[in-house]
Request: fold
Amino acid sequence: MSMELSPRLMAIATWFTGEESMADIGTDHGYLPVALIEKKIIAKAFACDINKKPLEKARKFIKDNGLNNCIETRLGSGLSVLQPGEAEVIVMAGMGGILITELLEAEVLIAGAAKKLIIQPMNNQPVVRRYLETHGFKIIHEDLAQESNRIYEIIVAAPGTMSINDVLDYQLGYQAIQTRHPLLKAHINRKIYLEEKICDSTRGKTSLIAKKQFKESKTYILRLNEVKKCL
Reply:
């Protein structure tokens, strides 16, 4: 049974470049490892989830596709289900950015032993980038994928060092301006929309926190509009 991935998962799959094994943390139905094995992109996969019900669905999907010998399911929290070096690529997609950093921090040896991390945070992307920068990882690629009205940010990192000097590299995406992704303008428009909502909710408020947030959002909107003009 050949399956087609969603644009988000397809973008994640694009960043496999000759590795033999992968672990999908929070695999849900197991779509990504099944597709990677079917397309012979990898030879071995671990489909991992902290919850029993999604993992049972993944097991059934893997079995229905005849891939029990290639994909192993594991129940547990984050990277704790792996041994260091067991998976060359670790995928953490579809979960919150703060949770991702907590799971990486909980198993630093396992995270550091992987050749590559492919991370797709649902929120708090700047927190993830800052964590990678300060914990021995270098962002080697970034990508964007669109599904309906939502644009997803995909961060590819490897062990190494990096130094981010422009705050937009945390907020908008590492070197996003230089790479000029086709979805970058839509990505910026979405961020402007969200910041304008923050401005609306803090405008006229007298608390120091609200005043600070209003000023920061206004400044961020100006920067984003400057970038957009150059695209």
In short: The CA atoms of residues 29 and 172 lie 30 Å apart. The radius of gyration is 19 Å.
